[in-house]
């Protein structure tokens, strides 16, 4: 089995009965805990118009988490670039890298991170996204380069800084782009499993080495819910299941507490849809998690696993990341 790094994806989940202030404090607590366990990085994802997710001002939140940690890499998983001016993102992440040198990543996606009406409010033009996204990535690389010092438009801060760019995707489109540009590639397997294997194959087969990256680098984002017993882990996972039912029903309310019986909540069709979308979810005790991770890695051979964990109880969420870390360690020592 190929060895791999582990990291955290945090959506700043808002829980029923909790405030957004509570959410941000929980995110900071999780980042500190992940840092203590030597997780490689802690990424936050841009979403909009959702009561259940508070990471809309992603750059601001990254700064808050970076200020409260010491060494873990912080970044975006991702910034939805067509929602923004390339120059503004270069300045924001240039500011972050200047404040926290050597710790900032910039993951970039093309999806809106929201519904169509909100995407329109963000100023997106869906007719130009496929052309705009690659162009904006090249603009960012230009703004970050030392060679841009003589340009009429410059990113200050940002110019001359080494801020790694990552291409994010949930289909095969961005796999082609990441391969062409010679950039690392992260796939959203935690909610879009259908094309993950094909996307990885495209990326590996068509990768062009660049000054940024010599060989392919793949991050797979998956769901992870671990507990001392299998029974408890599956109980905790019902928060994740309910969250996806809410997406299907277009109900964006905060994340609910776990329940004992899911069949009282979802219909057979909803159950099938949720389980299909959550195909890459590792749920169970430490030995079960280790076995699931081993099986996954033998097939997909990724460089890094980024774990997203929707668990209602904050301490149980911390415990889950600790159990997953132990499971990964046991595999590397086997």
Please state how the strands of the largest beta sheet are arranged side by side. 1-2-3-4-5-6-7-9
- What is the 3D form? globular
- What's the helical proportion of residues? 40-55%
String of helices and strands: EHEHEHEHHEHEHEHHHEHEH
CATH classification, class level of the largest domain: Alpha Beta
Distance between the termini: 10 Å
Task: Give a short synopsis of this structure.
The protein is 44% helix and 15% strand. The protein has 334 residues and is an alpha/beta fold. The radius of gyration is 19 Å and the shape is globular.
Features:
TIM Barrel, alpha/beta, globular, 15% strand, 9 strands, 12 helices, 8-stranded parallel beta barrel, 334 residues
Describe the structure.
Residues 19-298 form the Luciferase-like domain. It comes from Chryseobacterium gilvum. InterPro entries: Bact_Lucif_Oxidored, CmoO-like, Luciferase-like_dom, Luciferase-like_sf. It holds the Pfam family Bac_luciferase. The chain is of the alpha/beta class and 334 residues long. The protein folds into two domains: 1-163, Luciferase-like domain (TIM Barrel); 217-334, no CATH class. It contains twelve helices and nine strands. An eight-stranded parallel barrel has the order 1-2-3-4-5-6-7-9, surrounded by seven helices. Helix 3 links the parallel strand 3 and strand 4 (104-109). Helix 1 (20-36) runs parallel beside helix 12, helix 3 (86-99) crosses helix 5 and helix 11 (286-300) crosses helix 12.
